[in-house]
Amino acid sequence: MKQLIVLGTCLMLLLSACLPGGGNSGQDSAAQTQAMPDMAATAIAQTAAANQSRPPQQPAAPTNTPIPPVTATALVNANCRSGPDTIFDFLATLKQGESASVVGMNDTFGDWWQVELNDGIQCWIQADSLTFTGDTNSVAFVASPPTPTPKPKPSWAGAWNTLHMYNSSDPTNLLDFNINIVQTGNTLTFSWPAFGNTYNALLTLSEDGLTATGRGQRSGGGDEIQIIFVMLETNHDQFRGQWYLISSPSFNGDWCGSRNGEDKPNPCRNG
């Protein structure tokens, strides 16, 4: 349409410029004046017909190739949190062998990956608990939510009723006994009876206060064992655990406990 208007205007100006001077007769002037709109209309019609004969322009084909999705699979039962740090709230667990879609990453407080679970929950898991399928370099950086106020660490001190399995291949070989845990800072100590002897344990707490690892030994020496207790993040009156004989790791078993009237967790063993 713009082309038609411009063309018409140009023709009008051209024809006006070609009009003869005052010495011409009135008949010549009238004839030329009558021819002007006819010529303009003819030129406009020709231009419109030419435009209609042109084939429509096709949009350019997209050149961007979709980026394949990245998937994370849990190497162990992995805590999924509301933000990329252990101080953020626990939201869910991505169980060992389960997979989730990766939607973001953040390395402000270490390597953390934001995933979307099958139920639609989006949460954060530490990188060392995951293995990946796809190009992780394509994952976008996602800013961390505001850092929450740190929660006080849970206390392990007090009386626990524990279930101690002496042979993981024989679930009937169990002992049910109480231990009294004494907590001093990040250190736990307690004693327990076994095989007619008394054993003493010294464990050290993790930074978040939920995991206690260390060794126990029979009074007088010998029979040194490795111990791992993991307090449930959703219930601080329960823990899962395991132990093994350091000199013969194949001799091992489960060890879990509860307090304040809670049932022992099932399964008993952590991991």
- State the CATH architecture of the domain at 158-258: Beta Barrel
Main structural class: alpha+beta
Judging from the principal axes of the Cα atoms, what is the shape? elongated
As a percent range, the share of strand residues is 35-45%
Stretches where pLDDT is under 50 for at least 5 consecutive residues are 1-8, 17-31
Assign the CATH class of the domain at 158-258.
Mainly Beta
CATH topology of the domain at 158-258: Lipocalin
Mean of all residue-level pLDDT scores: 82
User: Portion of residues in helices?
Assistant: 10-25%
What is the number of helical segments per DSSP (H or I, 4+ residues)? Answer: 2
Please name the fourth-level CATH homologous superfamily of the domain at 158-258: Quinohemoprotein amine dehydrogenase alpha subunit, domain 2
Q: Report Rg.
A: 41 Å
List keywords for this structure.
271 residues, alpha+beta, SH3 type barrels, Lipocalin, eight-stranded antiparallel barrel, five-stranded antiparallel beta sheet, disordered N terminus
